[in-house]
Specification:
This protein is mostly helical and 554 residues long. The chain is built from 23 helices and no strands. The chain has one domain (3-20, 28-175, 214-343, 385-552): Sodium/glucose cotransporter (Up-down Bundle). The longest helix is centred in the middle third of the chain and has 54 residues, at 159-212.
Length: 554
């Protein structure tokens, strides 16, 4: 990068850090509410920005554009259907959560079931953060920086060494933000970075389309559409990463889990000044998620066109496109924006990890008489350990099979299905015993892993052996046979979700809680829990917008 690029990178990054410090200097970060929930002082815009940046990072931008490079616009389902899940959460789930005045989802679950169920769920969240999400955020961000800015050549070291260097650099800075600044520092920096990411993210498709259209964005879009019609079909077939039928099964389960029960997401909303502010923030985020495919899907299709589909690795599509189309003058700003997005997701997860350990494990299981200061300190230490584990794992993700984004979704499926089942049953029924929840939380993970790692591969291998024995050699026929040998992992998520719900209902009718043991929800007096009156009409409008995209791309 040039001197100007380096200065613009440092300038924007330091500006974000200064504003985050200035906005949080009056917050008591040693108290539980101050560190975990930003003193319950977050407004709608800050919440929306933090939600988007917690979700949208390099693993989304790089991974989803990589899938779009290979498959086209059908992968937009991960983003557009997220808007529906956010609407569902804002209307139906968030009021239940915020009326209880909770800090974490496991705390909510303890009220419905028991103390041990809370601990099991907290551990599952920490495993998801430490083994899947944190490492993939670090790896994808490092891969993007390495490819976009030719860091191996610039630094004179190998690609592997660059990945290690980037992973640990991002990790150390993220630790400082998350563990010393608390939620408010994370959320404020998220808002600034969200604005920067929307501006910087829109630059890439604009410059890319302009290159295709010889200076005209509209001509470029027309050329892209006419030259690659197969890339603009939103209905995936049985061999695609998102067969159309999965939208109605595991896809929505994955989305509602992520936006409706995931601690790292909901913690931002729990820090709201009121339920109405939380709902406003979620609706704003839902509308932007509907538009986000312009940033995380369209560039992948543009890259397919500009590179004639020839790249060694589909996950390199976005970094390679940025390198090709972005003018030198904007490189420093874009690097700072991407750096902020990676940091945002990383430090948001770290802050949530500290919250889960301090609130749900340390104070409940290790030191019940711990003060708020001791609980926060223990949470910070646990977050530090989890960060170091993630920083050690991250460089090895390069060896993971399949695309980066697909890997994330499959790995999270083992946790999302049982967690969502337990949360929903906890809301719907007050008589399901704690034993039912524990069986599902543990058994659900085991069933999914058995399906993903043993049953699926064995049935698929057997089908391929039979096909070869019958003389079938055509690649397309073999792909269809392989896809039909065992249900898609999103269908498996849907099937297991139903099984988990049935298991809990069996416990409901065979070992129902006694009348005296039924939980009566407390109503918090800490915040105003009056719903925002426009939540439902705006939510319905967003859902209709999402459905309209499937009429356009069909």
């Amino acid at each position: 990068m040039s001197t100007v690029s380096i200065l613009s990178f440092l300038g924007f990054t330091l500006l974000v850090a200064f504003v985050a410090w200035y906005a949080t200097r009056g917050t008591d970060e040693k108290s539980a509410d101050g560190f975990y929930l930003g003193g319950r002082s977050l407004g709608a815009l800050t919440i929306a920005g933090s939600l988007l940046l917690t979700n949208l990072s390099a693993e989304q931008i790089v991974g989803l554009n990589g899938q779009a490079f290979s498959e086209g616009v059908l992968v937009m389902a991960w983003e557009t259907l997220a808007a529906i899940a956010i609407v569902v959460t804002a209307i139906f789930l968030l009021p239940n959560y915020m009326r209880s005045g909770i800090t974490t989802i496991p705390e909510f679950i303890e009220g419905r079931f028991d103390h041990q169920t809370r601990a099991i769920m907290a551990v599952l969240f920490l495993i998801a953060f430490g083994v899947v999400l944190l490492p993939t955020i670090l790896y994808s961000g490092s891969l993007a920086f390495s490819t976009m800015f030719d860091l191996p050549e610039l630094l004179g070291i190998s690609q592997s060494a660059v990945i290690w260097l980037c992973v640990w650099s991002i990790g150390v800075i993220g630790i400082i933000y998350a563990l010393f600044g608390g939620l408010k520092a994370v959320a404020v920096s998220d808002l600034i970075n969200a604005i920067g990411l929307l501006i910087g993210g829109l630059m890439i498709p604009i410059f890319g389309l302009s290159m295709i259209g010889d200076g005209s964005v509209m001509d470029g879009l027309s050329t892209l559409w006419d030259s690659n019609p197969e890339k603009f079909d939103a209905v995936g077939d049985v061999t695609s990463s998102i067969p159309f039928g999965t939208i109605f099964t595991g896809m929505m389960i994955a989305q509602i889990y992520y936006w409706g029960t995931n601690q790292s997401i909901l913690q931002r909303v729990f820090g709201a000044k009121s339920l109405a502010e939380g709902q406003k923030g979620m609706m704003a985020a839902a509308f932007v998620k509907f538009l986000i495919p312009v940033i995380v899907v369209l560039p992948g299709i543009i890259a397919w066109h500009l590179f004639d589909g020839n790249l060694d690795n589909a996950d390199q599509a976005y970094p390679a496109l940025v390198k090709k189309v972005l003018p030198t003058a904007f490189i420093g700003f874009f690097a700072a924006v991407l750096f902020g997005a990676v940091l945002s997701s990383f430090n948001s997860l770290l802050n949530s990890s500290a919250t889960l350990f301090g609130s749900d494990l340390y104070k409940q299981n290790f030191k019940k008489d711990a003060t708020e200061k001791q609980s926060v300190k223990a949470g910070k230490f646990a977050g530090l350990i989890l960060a170091l584990i993630a920083m050690t794992i991250a460089p090895f993700i390069a060896n993971a099979p399949g695309g980066l984004f697909d890997y994330i979704q499959q790995a999270l499926g083992s946790l999302s299905v049982p967690i969502l089942a337990v949360v929903l049953v906890g809301i719907i029924s007050k008589r399901v015993p704690a034993l039912g929840a524990k069986v599902v939380l543990v058994g659900g993970v085991v069933m999914y892993l058995f399906s993903l790692l043993y049953l699926g591969p064995n049935l698929t291998d057997a089908a391929m052996v039979d096909a070869t024995a019958n003389g079938i050699t055509d690649a397309n026929e073999l792909a269809i046979i392989k896809a039909q040998a065992y249900p898609h992992f999103l269908h498996i998520m849907g099937i297991l979700f139903v099984i988990n719900m049935i298991i809990m209902l069996i416990f409901r009718f065979t070992m129902a809680k006694r009348e005296d043991d039924i939980y009566i929800p407390k109503i918090t007096e800490e915040i105003d829990t009056t719903p925002w009156k426009y939540t439902k009409p705006i939510g319905i409008a967003i859902v209709l917008l999402v459905l309209s995209t499937y009429l356009i791309f069909r």
